[in-house]
């Protein structure tokens, strides 16, 4: 049996458990890549206990190196030095040393950086291999264009945070451009993200979308009854993530009161770990329930009349929308929440923008059981047709196979 090429896969966070966006995509990339490569995982760790979770990846990995990230002290240090805070946050001097020792005895055919903040590590690996006269190819999956995200944050921030966000955007854009020019191939998650790349480099960037585990999010299975009332809405997400926080606060302030007057028994379930203090405050409002972390979100998705995604600022593909569609749940989403999902409004899901549109769209759907059923069926059919992880990551995996065999432009 021919030996598989060896890939060094470097995400900015440990991709297990696959329970939030950045981990989900990285985990499924590893699953798909493992069919063709021996994979060594190298990543900064957020705490000492996190390494225990890595055992969930054992069946997909050849090896692993990892060390604690610098965190906020290093992030502030990078800011004072005029560099990106995000880069400092994920910096680990020990990880660089571990990589150096590992590479002495383990030739690598391909190195993959997941997120632009991993580009310094990727560059370190490539230069090390070059010094040893080893051929290697390099791929960066930026996922989202993070510089654009921070510019968006700056638009709605106070003067102090605005300065920091603008600085971060400038530094990250410089790193993104360097990564694209340096690597053999670069990827983002949607065509909309690709358009945010400077025009001179855009042709060097490809798109690899997100999928959903449709066997796990199975619309035909029976999950634990969470006791949700007939008139209920659900939002599922990481509740310390700024766009999620901002989105649910906007919905509760501008949409929910009018809906509650029309449907006095209406409940809005905000489901997700680490609710920020602002989100926790919403739990004091009659009809709003902030659950915090739950063992299984599927019971909430199955029990709610509608799933909503009212994000006002969003980047890339919203996994929460794909998961709700896979569960056969009728969805109402904001325009930015639909970005990157090839769904037809009116057939697979409904879209609302202004508070008035949200109120009227949800009200009409509450009164139309046949439409809810039709949306649920069509949403699930869309997932089955287009959104398996194998299909969405096919181009990415094939590109990695080609480059590993060819050796890349870096020698």
Short description:
With 411 residues, the chain is of the alpha/beta class.
Question: How does this model look, in words?
Answer:
The strands form two sheets. A seven-stranded parallel β-sheet has the order 3-2-1-4-5-6-7, sandwiched between helices. With 411 residues, it is α/β, with parallel strands linked by helices. The chain is globular and about 70 Å long. It has two domains: 6-211 and 390-406, Glycogen Phosphorylase B (Rossmann fold, 3-Layer(aba) Sandwich), CATH 3.40.50; 232-387, Rossmann fold (3-Layer(aba) Sandwich). 45% of the residues lie in helices and 15% in strands. It has helices spanning 21-33, 71-80, 85-89, 93-105, 119-131, 146-155, 159-182, 191-194, 199-202, 242-254, 256-262, 277-282, 298-303, 319-326, 335-338, 355-366, 369-386, 389-392, 394-406, and strands spanning 6-11, 38-45, 63-68, 110-114, 137-143, 185-188, 205-207, 232-236, 267-271, 288-292, 306-309, 331-333, 350-351. The protein has 19 helices and 13 strands. 47% of the residues are buried.
3D shape: globular
Give the number of domains: 2
The CATH topology annotation of the largest domain reads as Rossmann fold
CATH architecture heading of the largest domain? 3-Layer(aba) Sandwich
Count the beta strands. Answer: 13
User: What is the helical fraction, as a range of percent?
Assistant: 40-55%
- Rg (C-alpha, Å): 22 Å
How are the strands of the largest sheet arranged?
A: 3-2-1-4-5-6-7
| Unreliable spans | none
Query: What characterizes the major β-sheet?
Result: 7 strands, parallel
Structural class: alpha/beta
- Tally of alpha and pi helices: 19
- Report the average pLDDT across residues: 93
Question: Proportion of β residues?
Answer: 15-25%
